Amino acid sequence: MAEFPDDIFTEPEDVDPHGLNNLGPLRRLAGTWEGLRGVDVNPKAEGPETRDYLERIVMEPIDPQANGPQLLYGLRYHVHINTPEEQITFHDQVGYWLWEPATGLVMQTLAIPRGQIALARGQAEPDADRLVVSATRGDTAYGICSTDFLEHAFRTDSYRLEITFNPDGSWSYVSDTMLAVKGQQGLFQHRDRNTLRKIAEPQPNPLALLEG
Ligand code: HEM
How far, in Å, from the CA of 42 to the mean position of ligand 1? Predict the structure, then answer.
């Protein structure tokens, strides 16, 4: 358990309004990204299905956020995925990436339109070349919540995402979601991986635009 100050109400003063300058290891995620060679392994009745996918990710800086004394900088993101064969949405996800400069805490919130949310955490140095965040079902802080149908049929026990920043400015991820599929032995490893290349720079956060 982390150590917290006794005063839980007083917020930090003199906060730098420029989100992009304070993102630590998340700075290299800011912008709009395209990944053309994604690979997904998902659970189907007849067994694991492997599909290639196309991905677009937008990550824009938000204004600094205080929880009492805790100061967070972050990115609001949207992931949209379809397949080379079909225009329909194959996966959609929104959330925030958050960084606490004082402690090196990294968090990813994720919401997907199956009726599922998670808060994953990790720890990193500001110049890290690799980020790992994870969430575990049942953890009251860094957990996973799902609809009762998913709890019944595709119980999600854990989520882990590993990001590697590549020397050419692109980044790659491997995401592992462990599912207990009703009627099947053991856990199903729902794995996704892709490499993202930047197609547009981020916009400054709203407060940074106001301050100039
Ligand atoms: C690149 C990322 C991802 C892609 C492309 C993807 C794609 C898919 C696909 C195609 C299915 C099968 C859908 C169906 O048969 O209805 C599936 C199932 C599922 N996915 Fe993902 N997924 C991704 C990430 C995630 C993440 C991060 C989570 C949760 C943390 C997640 C949770 C689930 C669950 C619980 C199911 C089973 C539900 C069902 O089949 O009805 N997925 N995913």
Answer: 6
Pairing of strands 105-112, 70-82: unpaired
Report yes or no: 119 and 155 within 8 Å, Cβ to Cβ: no
Total-model pTM: 0.96
Q: Which tokens sit at 171? A: 């980044």
Q: How far apart are alpha carbons 168 and 71 in whole angstroms?
A: 31
Sorted by where each starts, the structural domains of the chain and their CATH numbers stand as 20-211 (2.40.128.20)
The predicted-structure confidence for 3-51, as pLDDT tens digits, reads as follows: 899 999 999 999 999 999 999 999 999 999 999 999 999 999 999 999 9
Q: Got the DSSP string for 3-22?
A: ---S--SPPPSS----GGGG
Q: What is the position in ligand 1's atom list of the atom closest to the CA of 194?
A: 1
Rounded CA-CA distance 80/112 in Å is 11
Which amino acid would we find at residue 198?
A: K
Pocket of ligand 1 contains residue 118 by CB under 6 Å: yes
Q: Which tens digits make up the pLDDT trace of 143-172?
A: 999 999 999 999 999 999 999 999 999 999
Residue in this structure with the two tokens 């989100």, named with its chain if needed: 19
